[in-house]
What we know:
Blueprint: H1 2-11, H2 19-24, H3 30-42, H4 44-52, E1 63-68, E2 71-76, E3 79-80, H5 82-86, E4 99-104, E5 110-114, H6 115-131, E6 139-143, H7 148-160, E7 163-166, H8 173-183, E8 187-191, E9 194-196, E10 199-201, H9 203-210, E11 219-223, E12 237-239, H10 240-244, E13 256-257, E14 261-267, E15 275-280, H11 282-295, E16 304-306, H12 313-325, E17 330-333, H13 344-352, E18 356-359, H14 361-370, H15 372-376, E19 385-388, H16 395-405, E20 412-414, E21 449-452, E22 465-469, E23 479-480, H17 484-492, E24 499-507, E25 513-518, E26 522-525, E27 528-531, H18 532-540, E28 545-555, E29 559-568, H19 578-589, E30 598-601, H20 615-622, H21 638-645
Helix pairs in contact: 3-4, 6-7, 8-9, 11-12, 14-16
Bound molecules: adenosine-5'-monophosphate-propyl ester (PRX).
Amino acid sequence: METHIESHLVEKRVFKPPKDFQRRARIKSLAQYQKMYRESIRQPDKFWRREAKELTWHKPWKRVLEWKAPFAKWFVGGQLNISENCLDRHLTGPRRNKAALLWEGEPGEKRTLTYQQLHREVCRFGNVLKRNNIRKGDRVIIYLPTIPEAAIAMLACARIGAVHSVVFGGFSADSIRDRIADSGAIALITADGSYRRGTIVPLKKNVDEALQSGTSVKRVIVYKRAGNEIHMKEGRDVWWHRELEYVDANCPPVWLDSEHPLYILYTSGSTGKPKGILHTTGGYLLGIYCTMKYVFDVRDEDIYWCTADVGWVTGHSYVVYGPLANGGTTLMYEGAPNWPEPDRFWKIIEEHGVTILYTAPTAIRAFIRWGDAWVKKHDLSSLRLLGSVGEPINPEAWMWYRKTIGGGRCPIVDTWWQTETGAIMITPMPGAIPTKPGSATLPFFGVDPAVVNEVGDEVGPNIGGKLILRKPWPSMLRTIYGDKERYKKQYWSEFKGSYLTGDGARRDKDGYFWIVGRIDDVLNVAGHRLGTSEIESALVAHDAVAEAAVVGRADDLKGQAVVAFVTLKGHANLTPRLKTELRDFVGVHIGAIAKPDEVRFAEALPKTRSGKIMRRLLKEIASGQSVTGDTTTLEDFSVLGRLSAEE
Ligand code: PRX
């Protein structure tokens, strides 16, 4: 009861947009937002047509939307190229000499690329791709650190119509291999190594391992980043810098249909196999263009920094495509926030004069833990807007962010969205929508979210339910690559005509959305989605393991921690090293982010009579609660006692 009252008090904190911010903003009042929102829902064609006209089209579209649920086509008949929209169109005026990209490496190097320079590099690398027989429609894996070449490679693929699939640099050889197999990629772009907390991550070595057995990859282009020693396989591997010697900078953009695939990005689902989320050209560009324009209200004089790695969707939409489509200046940082010291972010903000910062709650919680003294060492007065993404932000972390980083003057945009949505879906407009700590507030234009119960009826204020989206939107995923059936089943089968987000939420009396977290078997660890069954599959692949069940437990720093319950095969010995061995095993098979924080051995796992693992019980045990819920279907009750005694 007391917690309820407390959370009620928290809800009452409301922060109006600061007056001076409001005056300059594109959307200046709640009324203006509401008017535009109403139009976007009632007359979506009219709304999106007007917005889309701000982009550069080679051939105009015939129809704004063709919706044969659940398959959407946006701007049917239109032709364009994203790289032209991100680069060429900014070259005719003063933006030509403006910084498009500012970069800082972890060891401290700095690079600046103006629009003109970035355009030139993208064109040259586009020609390198062509020289290496990469053509329109071919899939290309990009396994690079957050360096300018990652953006160059993505934009060069887009320029020639190749489909990129960026694999996060923290993923292992196995993960790369799976993604190559699923996408049928013919080429891979990587670097010798990258820096992380002062050590070198051997990217090329992981690639070599991934390509050991039969693969569709014919060509590997290697950028020299860390200078670590690597093996170059003759006939397959070429150096990025050598290839550039053979090409010129003349690479006209290929005109692509609005629905031409732009990229595939793999994300975790509730089954073992990662899903290849497919985004296409016109609608995606419009989604990221508009959100960047209205949510971040980005201006020519801004220095905008999104701290995400390019390997995640945030890196795609809000490090590369969104800012560049708007002619903004985007800052990229390669390394860890606490290298060499916990003030690295604040040092970067001070030195570059960052005006907009977009980061994740897990990072904010780490900063709180490291202490305010690190922040106080630096002048952060250049900041004018703050953003948050990746998981629900705790109201207290929100308050700290506002006060300590934003000096009490910067609005915070808590942006809810997903790999699948491509662009921000629920968010405050910083000059228009009053914010409440912990709430993503109201829907973006054209987004029609609802909170529903099990049968799909909308629930009343402050009642929890499933978050769905009732209308198609331009930047939506088009399918799961190569698996239309899974796309239909996963997202569109539970509530007819609506998209199932997989998140739980409630809506308060003002219509504000409060996202509670995942309702499926997907964990959110440090802002990254991990499928429990993926980790289970990795554990079971270990010789000693018979069965594994993975659940999440609340964690102060990471949001959720990974807890694995494991039963061993008869012959296996429970050696003192086994826990570490299993953790490392998961690290090798998926990547370090998926390593269980805790491994618990058990003689048996609690199962229903039909043999299903009762995760709810394991969750309660993992979080140290006594088991309270219904256990009537439990097959062997004594298992519970034994599991709890493990602690
Ligand atoms: O659970 C929600 C959470 O992150 C999930 C999407 O993860 P991913 O596809 O990896 O994309 C992350 C970056 C967009 C969502 O289903 N999530 C994301 N943003 C928020 C959030 N939860 C609460 N509040 C947010 N602002």
